[in-house]
Fold this protein.
Amino acid sequence: MTDAVETVKKTADTVKATTEKAQANFQAGAEKAQATFQANAEQAQAAGAKVFRDVADKSAAGLAELNAHSKQNLEAMVASATAAQKGVETLSAQSVAFTKKSWEDGVAAAQSMAQARSIQELLELQTSWAKSATEAYLAEVTKATDVMTASVKDSFKPINERVTASVEKFQAAR
């Protein structure tokens, strides 16, 4: 029986040693798994933070670019309005000058016609004045048309430049 007790004792000691060894291996494996998990978690967090920074930087750059684009558009609108205003001022001054000259010419023609000594002379003066008034009017219309055309062209130039720049930018982004 002593042999049986010894055998049981040896078996118990072997089981105990094997259990302790298994427990130590399990503990080492758990610690290794925890370290690996923590390292992976830190890598994932760093990668996520990098992606977030990249997206934030791109968003900020996009907003800055949009802001600059909007500012350039506003400047183009102001330049366009300024050019249009100059055209209106030129047309207005031209119109006032023509109206004043037409009035003065009409008064002078009326005085001249009032001093006519015959119907024939009156008709000649009236015909001459009508011809010169019509020619002056047509010249003034041509002049006003030229000013208007130049004004419209100058007014749309800044806007056309912005549209062209925007189209080129969008096509380059493709």
